[in-house]
C-alpha cells in the first residue's frame, strides 16, 4: 500500500470506524444508545453548517460558489439518469429507480467525515459546499418518483393494476423538511448572520469537542455497518460490483467537472466525495413511501453495507491523494 494512503487511513476517526466494524462482526454487546447516536449526528451537522455559514459570511457570494453549486446540480441530475439506465437492464423498473435515487443522492455522514479529513489536512474549502450537500439530495428522489409513476401509468394502460401515483409535491415536502437538512441549512444561516463574533463565542462547543464526538459517531457507524452487513443478501455479483464501481465512476466524473470549472482543491474534493457517496438516510425514508414496490433491503443494504464503508476506509483518502496530484 502506498505510504501516503496508509498515513491517511491511519487516522483516529478511521481507526475507530475499523474498531466498530470489528466489534460488530465479533457480535460484541458494545453499543451506543440510539438517542446519543442521533444527537452525535445532529451535532456534527450543526457544527459543519455553522462553520460553513461563518466562512460564507467572510467570502460572500462569489463566482467560485456559483461554479461549485452549478457543478453539484449537474451531478445531481446526470448520475441518477445514467444509473437508472444501467440498472434497468438487470432489474425491474421499481428497484432500478430506487437504487438510482440512492446513488444519485448523497450521504451527509460521508460528507461530515470528508470535512473532518480536510480540516486535519489543513486544506481550506468554501462554506457553500454545505449548500451543495442539500442541493444534491433531492433531484435524484424526484426523478425516481417520476420514473415510478410512469411505470405505474403504463401498467394501468396495459390492463394491469397499480396503486395511485405518488404526489411529487408531497415527496418534495418530505425531502426538503427532513430534520437533518433543516438543521444544516438553519445552522448555515445562523453562522452567516453571526459571523466571526458568534464563532468566537461558540468555538469551544463547535470546534474543540468536535473531533472527540466524531470518534464516537464513527464508532457507532462501524457497529451499524457490521450489523447490516450480516443481513445483506445481493442477488448475484452485479449489484455488489455496482455498489463500488459506480461511486468510483461518479468520483471521476465529479473530478473532471471540478477541474473544468476551476474549483479549488478543497471544493473539488468535497464535490468528488458527494458524487461518490450514496444516501442511506433520507432517500430510503422517502423511497419506502414513494416506491413501496422496490426492495428496500437492496438499496439500503448496498449504500450502507458496501458503498459507505468503501468510501470511509479507502475512497476518501484515495480521492484526496489523486486530487492533490492533479491540482499540484
TrEMBL record:
Signal peptide: none annotated. Keywords: Membrane, Transmembrane, Transmembrane helix. InterPro entries: Sbt_1. The chain crosses the membrane at residues 6-27, 39-57, 63-84, 96-118, 130-151, 171-193, 205-226, 238-262, 268-291, 298-322. It holds the Pfam family Sbt_1. This is Sodium-dependent bicarbonate transport family permease.
Amino acid at each position: 500500500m502506498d505510504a501516503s494512503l496508509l498515513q491517511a487511513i491511519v487516522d483516529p476517526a478511521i481507526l475507530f470506524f475499523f474498531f466498530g466494524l470489528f466489534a460488530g462482526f465479533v457480535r460484541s454487546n458494545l453499543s451506543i444508545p440510539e438517542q446519543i447516536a442521533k444527537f452525535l449526528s445532529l451535532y456534527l451537522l450543526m457544527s459543519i453548517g455553522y462553520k460553513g455559514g461563518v466562512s460564507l459570511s467572510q467570502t460572500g457570494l462569489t463566482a467560485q460558489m456559483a461554479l461549485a453549486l452549478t457543478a453539484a446540480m449537474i451531478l445531481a441530475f446526470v448520475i441518477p439518469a445514467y444509473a437508472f439506465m444501467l440498472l434497468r437492464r438487470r432489474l425491474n423498473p421499481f428497484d432500478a429507480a430506487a437504487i438510482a435515487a440512492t446513488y444519485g443522492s448523497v450521504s451527509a455522514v460521508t460528507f461530515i467525515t470528508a470535512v473532518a479529513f480536510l480540516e486535519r489536512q489543513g486544506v481550506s474549502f468554501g462554506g457553500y459546499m454545505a449548500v451543495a450537500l442539500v442541493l444534491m439530495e433531492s433531484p435524484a428522489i424526484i426523478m425516481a418518483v417520476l420514473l415510478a409513476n410512469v411505470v405505474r401509468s403504463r401498467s394501468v394502460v396495459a390492463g394491469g393494476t397499480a396503486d395511485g401515483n405518488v404526489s411529487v409535491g408531497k415527496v418534495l415536502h418530505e425531502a426538503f423538511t427532513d430534520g437533518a437538512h433543516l438543521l444544516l441549512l438553519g445552522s448555515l444561516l445562523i453562522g452567516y448572520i453571526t459571523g466571526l463574533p458568534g464563532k468566537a463565542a461558540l468555538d469551544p462547543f463547535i470546534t474543540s469537542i468536535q473531533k472527540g464526538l466524531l470518534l464516537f459517531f464513527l464508532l457507532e457507524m462501524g457497529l451499524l455497518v457490521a450489523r447490516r452487513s450480516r443481513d445483506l443478501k445481493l442477488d448475484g455479483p452485479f449489484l455488489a460490483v455496482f455498489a463500488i464501481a459506480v461511486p468510483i465512476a461518479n468520483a471521476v466524473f465529479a473530478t473532471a467537472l471540478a477541474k473544468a470549472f476551476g474549483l479549488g482543491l478543497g471544493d473539488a474534493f468535497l464535490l468528488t466525495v458527494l458524487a461518490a457517496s450514496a444516501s442511506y438516510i433520507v432517500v430510503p425514508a422517502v423511497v419506502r413511501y414513494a416506491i413501496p414496490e422496490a426492495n428496500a433491503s437492496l438499496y439500503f443494504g448496498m449504500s450502507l453495507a458496501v458503498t459507505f464503508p468503501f468510501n470511509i476506509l479507502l475512497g476518501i483518502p484515495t480521492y484526496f491523494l489523486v486530487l492533490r496530484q492533479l491540482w499540484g
